[in-house]
Amino acid sequence: MTRRPSIPVRRHAAALAAAALAIAAPAPRAAPAAAAPEASVAARFDVHFGGIRAGEVSVMLSEDGRRYSVASRAVTAGIVGAFYDAAYDAQAQGALAPAPKPEAFRAVGDFGGKRQQVEIAFGPLAPREVKADPPFKPKPYEIDPAVQIGVLDPLSAAATVLRPAPIANICPRSLDIFDGRRRAQITLGPPTRRDSGELRCHGRFKRVAGYRPKDMKSPDIAFSLDFEDQPTGAARLRRVTVDTGWGLLVALRRD
């Protein structure tokens, strides 16, 4: 008989997918000066939790200087996948002005056989419509999407990191993220050089609204991003490390 994991582990699987989409994204090579402002980046990450292989994440970004599209898939794998099947597929697109400005987001999550599809349509300033199938169950702490000014969906947030940037600009930023029901904020500090030669940026994931009251009392989630220098002057993400409170989650780039 298949053994279902504890509730904290099931919640962790969902958090893994969301965090991976929003954080685990590589900085691509800078385009030559004479080339058209186009980019296409694909990357895959192996995810380990507590030293055990737990999942895989793939991310792809395409842009033409005016518009962008990004897609990602996160699945459980290894020993974790043998006991618990979970998958999260998402797509987003929008305009570049010059940073990503989302227009549409769609995600399908299947966690242990519990499937849900979420779609977000964005207006000029904030989400204008959210659809969920099956519908979200009403909660006393739910928030109004229409007043979430300036938010990004998880994949558009990832696109801000995927896009080419000088090494000095790879990290310092603050991103407000809305997944259809909850609002969170990710902040990243400036890179520091490690003894290994890699650049490390420290960050924090803060719950802002739409979470259960007891989750709002939980500490912020600390994480770090490790980058490698590239000959082009850009940086390539190699590793994401997240302190989950139950152990370290590490996403290591495979290709």
UniProtKB/TrEMBL annotation:
Keywords: Signal. Residues 1-30 form the signal peptide. Coiled coil: none annotated. InterPro entries: DUF3108 (IPR021457), TAT_signal (IPR006311). It comes from the Bacteria. This is DUF3108 domain-containing protein.
